[in-house]
Amino acid sequence: MKNQFTPLYRIWHWTMAFSVIGLLCTVLLRKTFLSYKTNALIIQEKLAALDVEITLESAKTIAKAIRAPMWEWHYIFAAILGISILLRLVLLFTKEAKHPVIQFLEAPKEEKLKKGVHVLLCLCIALLALSGAILYFHETLGFEKASIGWVKESHEFLMFPLIGTIVLHLGGVLMHEVKTKEPIVSKMIHGDA
Ligand code: HEM
Ligand code: HEM
Questions:
Q1: Which is the most buried residue in 13, 73, 137, 189, by most CB within 10 A?
Q2: Is residue 109 part of a domain?
Q3: Which ligand 1 atom is nearest residue 188's CA?
Q4: Which of 73, 128, 138 to mutate to test the pocket of ligand 2 (most atoms within 8 A of CB)?
Q5: Does one domain contain both 21 and 110?
Q6: Separation in Å, CA 124 to CA 25, 55, 68, 102, 193
Q7: Percent of the chain at pLDDT above 90?
Q8: 70 with 102, same domain?
Q9: Is residue 91 part of a domain?
Q10: For residue 19, is it within any domain?
Q11: Is the beta carbon of 17 within 6 A of some atom in ligand 1?
Q12: Judgement on whether residues 154 and 187 belong to the same structural domain of the protein
């Protein structure tokens, strides 16, 4: 049988996994330790203890400035995700990997669920990349920020089905290893040549 886990296929997989995990980490930090709402209150409170009064608006500006260098990583990981999408296009072009929908249609009955999860995973990532790119390049594309509020909402919402499909993917990979004893993770690292 033709090797599935070629070097380029593995580089594609791990580049994409690394960038997606990185993107999720930036969101986690934005919503927790670097939340500008929480940190603005801390800044206001600590300055008040030193007899310095500032408005909540000024405190929010400072908290957003502290968050900014971390959030730059959202765009750095986005660029790495962009590279992985280009690699997948190369794989399609060189016929090293098939389109996930074709893989799903051609899969035997027992592999339909696994391939279905791959389709959903790729769909979520593609839509997140598209909506993210529209948000990032909205000025160049000639969109008013106010008119693309729905794109931002969709971008934020898509994270939840993405997390759901990642959990299913990791669960599926683990189950495959345990049930069949085929070292599939090892193949994704070392290849199957
Ligand atoms: C967020 C991170 C991840 C994403 C987005 C992701 C995405 C994907 C996608 C889309 C495929 C299908 C490939 C195809 O179309 O041919 C795949 C396959 C695979 N992934 Fe991941 N993956 C992630 C993390 C991981 C991790 C952490 C592991 C190992 C523990 C892993 C192990 C595998 C394996 C072994 C396959 C091959 C499955 C098979 O063909 O039977 N993935 N992954
Ligand atoms: C796994 C993929 C991604 C996930 C899970 C994700 C998640 C998110 C979330 C949850 C937000 C909203 C943060 C908030 O306002 O609290 C956001 C904002 C944003 N994302 Fe992503 N994103 C992903 C990929 C991308 C990509 C590929 C780009 C392309 C450049 C991108 C660009 C943006 C932009 C421009 C914003 C708006 C930032 C702002 O209003 O300050 N994202 N993302």
A1: 13
A2: yes
A3: 35
A4: 128
A5: no
A6: 17, 40, 26, 17, 31
A7: 97
A8: no
A9: no
A10: yes
A11: yes
A12: yes
Q: In the prediction, which pLDDT does 193 show?
A: 76
Say yes or no: 43 and 118 in one domain: no
Return the percent helix, strand and coil in the chain, to nearest 5: 80, 0, 20
Range of the domain at 44: 1-77
If asked whether residues 161 and 103 sit together in one domain, one would say yes
Q: Whose CA is nearest to atom 41 of ligand 2?
A: 71
Task: Give the whole-angstrom CA distance, residue 96 versus residue 90.
Answer: 8
Q: How many domains does the chain have?
A: 2
Question: Distance from the CA of 76 to the center of ligand 2, in angstroms?
Answer: 11
Task: Extract the tokens encoding 61.
Answer: 């500006």
- Residue of 173, 175, 178, 187 to mutate, ligand 1, most atoms within 8 A of C-beta: 173
Report pLDDT digits (tens) over 159-174: 999 999 999 999 999 9
Q: How would you class 142 by CB atoms within 10 Å of its CB: exposed for 0-12, middle for 13-18, buried for 19 or more? A: exposed
pLDDT in tens, 11-43: 999 999 999 999 999 999 999 999 999 999 999
How far apart CA 151 and CA 136 sit, in angstroms, is 11
Model confidence band, residue 3 (pLDDT cutoffs 50, 70, 90): confident
- pLDDT (mean) for 87-94: 98
Are 181 and 116 part of one and the same domain? Answer: yes
Q: Is 34 in the pocket of ligand 2 (CB under 6 A)?
A: no
pLDDT tens digit sequence for 132-154? 999 999 999 999 999 999 999 99
Among 13, 91, 178, 189, say which to mutate for ligand 1: greatest number of ligand atoms within 8 Å of CB.
Answer: 13
